[in-house]
Write a structure and sequence with these properties.
AraC family transcriptional regulator, single chain, five-stranded antiparallel sheet, HTH_AraC, Tscrpt_reg_AraC-type_HTH, transcription regulation, Jelly Rolls, alpha+beta, seven-stranded antiparallel sheet, Arc Repressor Mutant, subunit A, 3 domains, Homeodomain-like_sf
């Protein structure tokens, strides 16, 4: 459940500078924080920690101000990225690159390692509310490769950002039913879709797909869906996608592969992952072989050993052995163009 990070009213708002980072001065990073002296002061910040990440909901009836200078950065080099989702009011953000205002329906990322000044302003009803997430920058870098050192600003009209906000809100509002691992998976998913949105926004526009591109997408999807069917064939795929077998061969040449090579690689890759992640007491090698579309366990074993250098039983044993040698089993051996995958 969320915990109160700080709460200020008319009686204690002047103590905000020494209290805004929590009881042990561990949240956020150093800076100057103050609250406008107004007739109605009610500032509350609640925090939900997910590992090193904090999801914080802040509500205020007064304008708030925060400044981080180069002196603060020298004293405290904590490198945090902040993801901002504005609910009510607005955030005015200023740094050496200029001024930006983030309003409801907009999203921003800022970073603690460059000086900035932030003003959180109430709306016409005297309310300011936002959800923001503090995350070590090195964690966010795994999802967002673009530079956001001086700030990144986007509208929430992109569906990925709206979904990310909903995920983070659900994690924040969870009353303890979610386990730590599940909460972290949801937070990581939110970061991943934010990364996709940032990447897409930097592109000039969606790449125009040719008819061949669309048909190839249909073919690959059909193969993925029917991969477990041992009767999967070029005739079956061509009929299912409404194209001729000759055109199917042409599409796969665009991908620089053949039908047998593509299906072989996908089936073996899925079987390999299944062997590595399953318990022999739960599922047998024969069940895995049939599950990925091989007609017999013997054929599966021969093909698996040819590609990975070990038969399925040996590979499964190595996966459960701390002394395993993954280099022997990671790479695909070359596939012969005439190989009879679907025998």
């Amino acid at each position: 459940m969320a915990e109160t990070l700080f709460a200020f009213d008319k009686r204690n708002f002047r103590d905000c500078q020494t209290m805004f980072r929590g009881d042990r001065q561990q949240e956020y990073y150093r800076g100057d924080f103050w609250i406008e002296d107004a007739s109605n002061i009610d500032v509350r910040s609640e925090r939900k920690a997910i590992g090193a990440i904090s999801i914080i909901r802040q509500r205020s009836r007064a304008n708030l101000f925060f400044r981080r200078s180069r002196q603060h950065i020298r004293e405290d080099a904590t490198d945090l990225a902040i993801l901002w989702f504005v609910k009510h009011g607005e955030i005015a953000f200023s740094n050496q690159c200029g001024n930006r205002t983030v309003r409801p329906g907009e999203f921003a990322i800022t970073r603690s390692m460059t000086p900035f000044f932030i003003e959180c302003r109430t709306d016409a009803d005297g309310v300011h509310e936002m959800l923001h997430v503090t995350v070590p920058t090195h964690i966010l870098r795994a999802h967002i490769r673009q530079d956001f050192s001086t700030g990144l600003f986007m509208p929430l009209e992109r569906p990925e950002l709206a979904i990310a906000e909903n995920l983070l809100t659900e994690v924040f509002e969870d009353d303890g039913g979610l386990g730590e691992d599940s909460a972290r998976l949801l937070v990581d998913a939110a970061f991943a879709v934010i990364g996709n949105a940032v990447c897409a926004s930097e592109e000039s526009g969606p790449a125009r797909q040719t008819i061949a591109d669309r048909r190839l997408h249909d073919v690959l999807r059909f193969i993925e869906v029917h991969l477990s069917d041992p009767q999967l064939s070029t005739t079956m795929v061509a009929r299912g996608c409404g194209i001729s077998p000759r055109y199917l061969s042409f599409l796969l040449r665009l991908k620089e592969t053949s039908f047998s090579e593509l299906v072989w690689e996908q089936r073996l890759a899925k079987a390999k992952a299944w062997l590595a992640s399953s318990d022999p007491r739960d599922i047998s090698i024969s069940e895995i072989a049939y599950g990925v579309g091989f007609k017999s366990p013997a054929h599966f074993s021969r093909m698996f050993k040819r590609v990975f250098g070990a038969n399925p039983r040996e590979y499964r044993g190595e996966c459960g052995d701390e002394g395993a040698h993954p280099q022997r089993t990671e790479a695909f051996a070359p596939i012969c163009p005439g190989s009879a995958l679907l025998q």
